[in-house]
């Protein structure tokens, strides 16, 4: 794993935006599109706000969600709500191809299959160019929660958590999908995550973050 340490969460967000912009330009030049999945969180939203200012062919960029809470449309718990707030008033709102997880569906299992279909259709292979990940103080990443059955899913790209986490059931990308990504970008900030960051870097299989492939992965942090 490539490790980049910065002085603050703001610098992490800035450097991440620049790195993603460079990767997007390279992928668009080589194959005509860029497929990107984003997780939620304060630093990622700052990153996305900075990325929105980059001069990119946004109509050739396809943005997916890594995970989402099962909550009503427009609810503050939803990552999509926060994402739209970040992008409100920017040119990305009309030019960027955004694929929301359909967590208000009456059949959430079907919604998982449909989202997998969107990924396969827009990548051609099911392999995303970039997946951004964060990590919780308990070692979870995406909505792959310690002890939840979703961590054992092997034959689905998108799945539901078995139990609510912090009050909400989740829809999430699974280990098989995440681990086949062309690139993985970790943004990890916040002192409460120091212990788990060390365990993740040591590939500790007792925490979900430790099960993510470190091949083709970049870590940007202010903790080391």
UniProtKB/TrEMBL annotation:
<dbReference type="InterPro" id="IPR006148">
    <property type="entry name" value="Glc/Gal-6P_isomerase"/>
</dbReference>
<protein>
    <recommendedName>
        <fullName>6-phosphogluconolactonase</fullName>
        <ecNumber>3.1.1.31</ecNumber>
    </recommendedName>
</protein>
<dbReference type="InterPro" id="IPR037171">
    <property type="entry name" value="NagB/RpiA_transferase-like"/>
</dbReference>
<dbReference type="InterPro" id="IPR005900">
    <property type="entry name" value="6-phosphogluconolactonase_DevB"/>
</dbReference>
<comment type="function">
    <text>Hydrolysis of 6-phosphogluconolactone to 6-phosphogluconate.</text>
</comment>
<dbReference type="Pfam" id="PF01182">
    <property type="entry name" value="Glucosamine_iso"/>
</dbReference>
<keyword id="KW-0378">Hydrolase</keyword>
<feature type="domain" description="Glucosamine/galactosamine-6-phosphate isomerase">
    <location>
        <begin position="8"/>
        <end position="216"/>
    </location>
</feature>
<comment type="pathway">
    <text>Carbohydrate degradation; pentose phosphate pathway; D-ribulose 5-phosphate from D-glucose 6-phosphate (oxidative stage): step 2/3.</text>
</comment>
<comment type="similarity">
    <text>Belongs to the glucosamine/galactosamine-6-phosphate isomerase family. 6-phosphogluconolactonase subfamily.</text>
</comment>
<dbReference type="InterPro" id="IPR039104">
    <property type="entry name" value="6PGL"/>
</dbReference>
């Amino acid at each position: 794993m490539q490790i980049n340490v910065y002085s603050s969460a703001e610098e992490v967000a800035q450097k991440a935006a620049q790195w993603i912009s460079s990767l997007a330009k390279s992928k668009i030049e080589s194959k005509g599109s860029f497929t990107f999945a984003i997780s939620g969180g304060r630093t990622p939203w700052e990153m996305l706000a900075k990325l929105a200012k980059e001069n990119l062919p946004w109509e050739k960029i396809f943005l997916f969600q890594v995970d989402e809470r099962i909550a009503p449309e427009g609810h503050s718990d939803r990552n999509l709500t926060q994402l739209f707030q970040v992008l409100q008033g920017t040119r990305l709102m009309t030019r960027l191809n955004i694929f929301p997880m359909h967590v208000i569906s009456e059949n959430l299992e079907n919604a998982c299959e449909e989202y997998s279909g969107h990924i396969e259709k827009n990548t051609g292979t099911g392999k995303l160019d970039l997946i951004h990940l964060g990590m919780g103080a308990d070692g979870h990443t995406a909505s792959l929660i310690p002890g939840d059955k979703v961590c054992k899913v092997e034959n689905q790209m998108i799945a539901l958590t078995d139990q609510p986490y912090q009050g909400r059931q989740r829809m999430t990308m699974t280990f098989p999908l995440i681990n086949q990504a062309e690139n993985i970008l970790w943004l990890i900030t916040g002192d409460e995550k120091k212990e788990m960051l060390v365990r993740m870097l040591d590939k500790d299989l007792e925490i979900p973050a430790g099960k993510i492939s470190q091949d083709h992965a970049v870590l940007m942090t202010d903790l080391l």
